[in-house]
Amino acid sequence: MQIYLDHSATTPTRSEVIEAMGQALTQTWGNPSSLHHWGEAAATAVEIARLQVAELIQAPAESIVFTSGGTEANNLALLGVLPRQPGHLIISDVEHAAISEPARRLQDQGWQVTRLPVTPQGRVQPDDLLGALRPDTALVSVIYGQSEVGTVQPIAELAAIARQHEVLFHTDAVQVAGRLPLNVEELGVDLLSLSSHKLYGPKGVGALYVRPGLSLQPLLAGGGQERGRRSGTEAVPNIVGFGVAAALAAEELAAEQQRLQGLRDRFFEHLAGVWSLQVTGDRQHRLPHHVSFLVDADDSQGKPITGKALVRQLNLAGIAISSGSACHSGKLAPSPVLLAMGYPERLARAGIRLTLGRETTEADIDWTARVLKPLVTGQRPV
What we know:
By secondary structure, the chain is of the alpha/beta class. The protein folds into two domains: 3-9 and 253-376, Alpha-Beta Complex (Aspartate Aminotransferase, domain 1), CATH 3.90.1150.10; 15-249, Type I PLP-dependent aspartate aminotransferase-like (Major domain) (Aspartate Aminotransferase, domain 2). It is 38% helix and 14% strand. The chain has helices spanning 15-27, 37-56, 70-81, 97-108, 126-132, 155-164, 184-187, 236-270, 307-316, 336-340, 345-348, 362-376; strands at 3-4, 64-67, 88-92, 112-116, 137-141, 168-172, 191-195, 206-210, 277-279, 290-295, 319-320, 351-355. The protein has a seven-stranded mixed sheet, sandwiched between helices. β6, α7 and β7 form a beta-alpha-beta unit. The chain is globular and about 70 Å long. It starts with a strand and ends in a 6-residue tail after the last helix. Residues 3-366 form the Aminotransferase class V domain. It comes from Phormidium yuhuli AB48. It catalyses: (sulfur carrier)-H + L-cysteine = (sulfur carrier)-SH + L-alanine. Its EC number is 2.8.1.7.
């Protein structure tokens, strides 16, 4: 039995998406910037996809900027709106590296960066944001759904605080899109990042929502594609695939959200009595597909059980899980997210993440729980 439970790392490309991309490769292969028929056909395909992505987040089509993925979208959000003169930036303590690393580089260039603390459940407190704002704060960026522990942040409330103080607000919604409803007007955000391969589209394409009227400085100098906001010939097949994936996600979202929540809660119930497992993240404010634990136990040799060891053991059983964000899964250092949530280093190396998807069944959940239990019930640590 092969069971894939790592959908926060990436999702399998849907057959409808693959078919649409094949048509784009064979029928609309022209350069969208060309004025002849072949170029016009490609440009039309891109604009249809732009509409489809925009509808997923209830945004106007012209507000969507296609990028190479979520990382570029996050970098563009920060670097595209911040002034050249160093000022003040606010992020949370549990951001993806695609935000925390650009913030670190900005700090090296003279920017002052405030990192908002989180509760033990990984939530940012609105009062902490209010207290961190300064007259020179240029931007606030808070991740919407945390990929490692599944916690969903109060984005609308945080964005409202920023707006009241005339500060721009960005959220990385890569893990949320296609899993929870998104409406940029109701959220009140100025910028929002998306990634295709998290919602059953192809890798290599993402998008940044930019509030209409907001000026954005491009990261790349070139031909001025994407209305001058992102130069480079558009990857038409990838963008077309992204559009189809977004349209399907919007159509199926309500039913799939409910189904995934049921499977998620079934998983938690299966493992509720295992003494060595501690749930990480917020149980109430949580991504519908997300299950995560810390393993507080020693193996037969008296050494702490690590998340990476469990990933390897489950892989041998044909089950794919993660020991945290896929972008950090090869590193031996303790999880920065778990450290920020107050866990000691020992436990910050013992996190596991199981993320469900369209093809996940009750049988998958039941079998994985059965396989996992004996692996995590080692000796109590001294």
